[in-house]
Amino acid sequence: MKRSVRMILAVACLLIGLAAVANAAATDQILSRWGKKIKLIDREDQVSNLEIRATYYSTEYVEALVQSEAQKNLWTQQEADEYKYRLLNTLQLEEMIPIRIEFTNNGPSMHLGPFDVMVKLMIGNKEYKMADYDKRFNFKFQGEKEGLVFFRRYDEKTGKDLLKGVKQVRLIFSPTISPITDGRRTEFIWDIANDDPAKLFQGKAAAKYETDRLIKRLEKLRKDKA
């Protein structure tokens, strides 16, 4: 009898372990789908190189990122909700299209300031300039540098949702970012047809975020009237 119980427990533990591995693999696949990278090698010396990684914060990516961090750090649900809340605050998804850019520059120093003219987002057949970005990109560097850039989600004049009905977006880097590009534009493309950021604003973390946002808006209105 005891032997049978031990056998059942062993099988149960094995199945749980396999499920966890499969779940982690699926999460990693999602993260890699939205985080793309390109490595450029200098054509002359064949040694100097530049790696660029760009991550589009889709709904699927954000949820997978929260899940991945929770599993990695053995968080409680409350801790995972708090992380998601802080992430939503940082990303400003209700107004912006956030993209993380990471450089690993093993070549000549890169001079990217002002950075907002170096990278554009193509939505449909129109290119858009950044609304905001990590100002550290303005300073010359070698080695690693990363940060967030933001593009407006809505047209400033009409208020139209720029992503409505759009199937793809394209992030375009100027060929002048580094001599290693050899005069070529570097591009990243994401399929966003099924992305729905509204799904992120559900649950405790989203409720807290919306409450804070409403309080800030009311405070701003009160100051404007004063």
From TrEMBL:
Signal peptide range in chain numbering: 1-24
Highest taxon of source: Bacteria
Keywords: Signal
Protein name: DUF4468 domain-containing protein
Organism whose genome encodes this protein: Cloacibacillus evryensis
